[in-house]
Amino acid sequence: MFKRRDPLPVLKRASEIVWPKGGWKRSGAYVAHRLRRLPGTPYRIAAGFASGAAISFTPFIGLHFVLAAVLALVLRGNLLAAAIGTIVGNPWTFPFIWLWIYSLGTWLIGGDDLTALPQSLSFGYIFENPLRVLLPMTVGGVPTAICAWFVFFWPIQRTVDQYQRARRSRIRRKIRRLRSMGASLEDAKGHRGAAGQNRRF
User: Fold this and answer.
1) C-beta pairs of 14-21 under 8 Å, 24+ apart in sequence
2) What is the pLDDT of residues 151-164, one digit of tens each?
């Protein structure tokens, strides 16, 4: 559904992850447009996107798509919306997300330093040091993910609901207009038929 006809080269795809073509504002508007037009109820679309966004606040890099899909299925959310929601976690936001969930987790566990992250932090380092990094990031990520789910769910549900209501209203007006045009054509045919009969007599 979202695939390009001509796949981009690897380097081009990587560059667009860091800085999308047309800028983040245009990319955000495109994502919002695609999100509103997804099939499903406002709840399912919002629950799906919120699930993907929430999972982005966990340290399980590489599993975000799978975990988002599982959470969306549990909450009866839209799977495509869940996949779109994972874009909340990207190269621009991950440093801030990691800093926050690591600091929060360290504080909840009882550590003293709320902001210090290992200088050599990387995907491999996170999973190679489960007690040092993965545990506090998980402890901090779970409550953050729960809060993020609601933060994204409510406005998206309202936006999709308003869009779908407006779309249904436009469709109803179009149907009424077509029916009115059809009735006018029938009347015109009737008048022509009556005029033809009067000429015969």
Assistant:
1) 17/90, 17/91, 18/91, 18/92
2) 999 999 999 999 88
Query: What's the whole-number average pLDDT of the chain?
Result: 78
| Residue the block writes with tokens 């991950």 | 94
- DSSP class of residue 19? S
Dihedral of CA 118/121/125/126: which sign?
A: positive
The two three-digit tokens of residue 192, written as one number: 């022509």
Q: Looking at the predicted structure, is the pLDDT value of residue 18 above 50?
A: no
Nearest residue to 47 (alpha-carbon basis) of 86, 78, 87, 68: 78
d(Cα 7, Cα 4) in Å, to the nearest integer? 6
Task: Kindly report the length of the chain.
Answer: 201
Torsional sign, CA 106, 110, 116, 119: negative
CB 86 within 8 Å of CB 51? no
**Ramachandran angles phi, psi of 111, nearest 5°:** -75, 165
Provide the residue type at 105 as one letter. Answer: G
